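Minutes, project huddle
Topic: does the predicted pose make sense with flavin mononucleotide bound?
PN asked that the exact inputs be recorded in the minutes so nobody has to dig through chat later. Recorded below.
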Amino acid sequence: MKTTVVYYSMSGNTKMTAEKIADKLSAALTEIRPVKEYPSKGFRKFIWGGKSAVMGEKPELEPYGFDTDCELIILGSPVWASNIAPPLRTFISENGEALKNKRIAVFLCYSGGGADKALSKLKAALGTEGFEAQLALIDPKDRPSHDNDRMISEFCGKLSGDA
Ligand SMILES: Cc1cc2nc3c(=O)[nH]c(=O)nc-3n(C[C@H](O)[C@H](O)[C@H](O)COP(=O)(O)O)c2cc1C
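Predicted holo structure (tokens), as shared on screen:
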């Protein structure tokens, strides 16, 4: 099945997960990045990123390739202020038509709280009741664990029909 993993990552946790998922499912990878990068160091990143997420901003993205013909789209984002990261919000808004009537799965990386709220906000942004599969991992790059790898495998198995 033609599959694309679309993700935003500031510090590599979502990126690492996206790469593992894409590898297991032989999927294409689309990384999205804002034209104006958020500060990624110190407390400023929480202030600017958090504010942008709370405001539901849709920052302009660098050009990205996205195969609108794919059958399954897997969206990945870090949790920011119990919300999805703003670049993913832009992607959803720019690809509303392409996302309609597609199989959609999601994964989130977070450091311990707010993933459920972020999932609800993602559902609202997509106008969907649920996902084919969903996964939330706690800082998988910074805190590697066998549990994370098992959850990634289960997530992929569910999507490929192996689980
Ligand atoms: C602006 C900002 C807001 C964040 N808000 C939350 C949050 O509400 N809940 C949480 O558990 N982690 C929060 N985090 C932590 C990240 O979600 C977490 O470290 C994630 O794994 C980072 O993914 P990345 O490395 O792909 O950027 C926040 C991080 C940033 C930069």
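Observations noted during the meeting:
- The first strand starts at residue 3 and ends at 7.
- The CA atoms of residues 58 and 90 lie 5 Å apart.
No decisions taken; revisit at the next huddle.
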